[in-house]
Amino acid sequence: MKIPEKALTDLEFTTVLQQLSQLTITSMGKESCLSLQPFENKQELILQLESVSEFTASFANENRIPNHGFDDLTSEINLLKIENSVLELEGFRRIAKASDIINILLKFFEKFKEYYPRLFEQSTDIEITKDLIIAINNVIDRFGEVRNDASPELFQIRKSIQAVRSKIGQSFQRALSQYTTADYLDVIKESVVENRRVLAVKAMHRRKVKGAIMGSSKTGSIVYIEPETTLQHTRELNNLQFEETDEIKRILLALTQYLQPYRPLLIQYQKYLILIDTYHARAKYAESTNSILPKINSNRELTLVNAFHPLLYLSNKKEGKTTFPQDITLTKEQRIIVISGPNAGGKSITLKTVGLLQLMLQTGMLIPVHEQSTVCFFDQIITDIGDNQSIENHLSTYSYRLKNMKYFIRKCNKNTLFLIDEFGTGSDPELGGALAESFLEEFYNREAYGIITTHYSNLKVLANELPNMSNANMQFDDRTLEPIFNLILGEAGSSFTFEVAQKNGIPYSLINRAKKKIERGKVRFDATIAKLQKERSQMTKTGDSLRKQESKAIEENNRLEVLNKKIKEKLIGYQELFDHNQRMIVLGNKVNEVADRYFDNGKKRPLVADLLRLVEGENSKRKKKSSSEKKKDKEVKEKANAEANKAMVSIRKEKKKKAAPAPVKVKVNFKLGDQVRLFDGKAIGTIDFIEKEKAIVNYGMFTTQVRLEALDLVQAAKIKK
Q1: How far apart are CA 431 and CA 249, in angstroms?
Q2: pLDDT grade, residue 475 (50/70/90)?
């Protein structure tokens, strides 16, 4: 679709494109981003949106898309269509590099086509070939020079050049040695003139040195002469270098002619790489604005959840400020929304947010909204935002707006999205409001979608009367009259004219006089709207509080249910463990009785019979269980035992804490013959030997070595008199 230039300016779309172009990595990608326009073909638009979404996802996974940077091939592509043209060496290198990048990208998308199906789809028509790279690398080395083996002729020429240069060096060295001995040369001995080695001959000896004079010093004291023997080889070198240049031209001409049939492929390569660069830039922009691809529908339904104005979001993000998102919905049942409320409340930003996001979406860019959002496409987006006074055409604001309304009426249909800021202003409020109401009815009858902002009461009333039109207002704090930047659908907003005036220090007497100058019904209408907004604000706060309380109550109830379930399970386990232990006690008593009888009579046969009878009696009470049931019973018992053991450990720990503190240990000087015992033992022994901090204690049947600190004195040894 073709969007009017005014809509692009009103919605600051060119600013978005400028920011987008800064994220490209090639000059051609930058130009392509700056020239982006909304798509007319919806299938192509969806393909690009999904491709950008895939590219954005690549930043967060391990399979990053390879680098796509390339140099502009336009001059090479243009030269290839001219007969007998020859590309420069750098041009061949650019072609080889682009071909290599394309091959890497195409192989990557082939390998990861499940991750990037739409990007892979766009690469299937491009040929993967190494012929270009091989042909160029066979001629040009990695330093950008023609290779010695580019042709047999060039190889022989360069070999001859190398030999001649060697001869030049040898002959010059002989001449240098000869004339140095003869003292014909200056102190510097040699120099370079016109890229040739020359002898620095003293002017007085210039006739004694055979060769070509190449120049002299500024003072004239030195004459630069190329020796005659060297001169002959230099002429031979010049001829070989001329042959080398001709051979290189022939080789590059042949290579250029080889590449000419590939010109359409190179054009395709460049277009594809430019497209990938724009995808990369759009993905980076989406990453910086937290943008996504919302669900696309064909039901002409636009539902934006947590929608941010991207330019405002990036600006506030840079300055560390908060950006407030908006929720707005346009459907067949609610095609037009009339937003009212005080100035500086965010009406125009909401309007621009919807328009700019729609433009970005239809240009193949992701938008900063919540994933629950759903979008559709429009054939036309027309706007009337800001001061539309035209100095060039000598039109007033109102005249310019009427001209725009004429354009709106000509273009509006069911596939149009119109956005009008301060609808109806610029003329007499009553007359302008009536005309604006007629325009709005016309847009409504044509089933167009749109959003307008206004202060006119008649437009608010009209929105309340028509079934597919709705009022909305930007919420304000009822106490401070500060904007909350929250759009409320379903009710008109008060302009808070007198309240704002009073807040800004206007005398109450003036405000009261102004109220008397207007119709009483108008004041009551505006006051009623203001009251409704305050009540709604209070209800919203109450609702939020109730929702929080309800959420806490649900969480507490869930916690108690889980706790109750655990307690029941533990009680069941304890009961089963208690019943099992009781049965074991009864069974143990019976076994004890059998053991007593055997102890008295010593007869084994009755013992075995009694035990068998006891076992059979027990087995008759048991129900045969499957392996899974046995396993379950075992788990229950183990769990109950574990719980019981845990409880016992806890009880024992508590008892230990409550127990009397251990007596303070008194250090004793033990001597040989002392009767002692271990602190935690009962056996008494006698100390036979003490060495360092250890003692040998004799217990009669055996002796043992014990640390002195572990012994308790029972009776000291008697001292012999």
Answers
A1: 81
A2: confident
User: Which residue among 450, 485, 517 closes a domain?
Assistant: 517
Per-residue pLDDT averaged across 6-34, rounded? 93
Q: Are 365 and 285 in contact (CB under 8 A)?
A: yes
Same domain as 270, residue 236: no
Residue 467 lies in a domain: yes
Together in a domain, 12 and 135: yes
Note if the pTM is more than 0.70.
no
Q: What is the mean pLDDT of residues 319-331?
A: 90
- What's the chain's Rg over C-alpha atoms? 50
The beta-strand segments (E) located in 441-566 are 449-453, 469-476, 483-489
480 and 416 together in one domain: yes
Q: Which of 657, 691, 706 is the last residue of a domain?
A: 657
pLDDT over 80 (residue 416): yes
Residues 335-388 pLDDT 10s:
999 988 776 567 888 899 999 999 999 999 999 999 999 999 999 999 988 655
The two structure tokens encoding residue 694: 């250890």
Helices 13-21 and 310-319: crossing angle in degrees, nearest 10, is: 60
Domain annotation covers residue 668? no
Q: Are residues 454 and 317 in the same domain?
A: yes
**Helix axis angle, 457-465 to 429-445, nearest 10°:** 30
The answer on 310 and 284 residing in a single domain is no
Q: Residue 37 — pLDDT band, cuts 50, 70, 90?
A: very high
Residues 668-702 have pLDDT tens digits of 788 888 888 887 777 788 888 888 788 888 877 67
Q: Is position 522 within any domain?
A: no
Q: Please give the structure tokens belonging to residue 355.
A: 């328009």
Residue 321, CB half-sphere, CA atoms under 13 Å: how many?
Answer: 9
Q: Which of these, 407, 406, 436, 410, lies nearest to 421 by C-alpha position?
A: 436
Whether residue 502 is found in the same domain as residue 591: no
Q: What is the domain extent for residue 711?
A: 675-715
User: Using a CB cutoff of 8 Å and minimum separation of 24, what contacts does 628-637 make?
Assistant: 636/573, 636/576, 637/576, 637/577, 637/580
In Å, what is the CA distance from 180 to each residue of 175, 201, 211, 234? Answer: 8, 9, 16, 22
Q: Which residues contact 14 (CB under 8 A, 6 or more apart)?
A: 8
What is the average pLDDT across 104-132?
92
Domain count, the chain: 5
In a domain, 526, yes or no: no
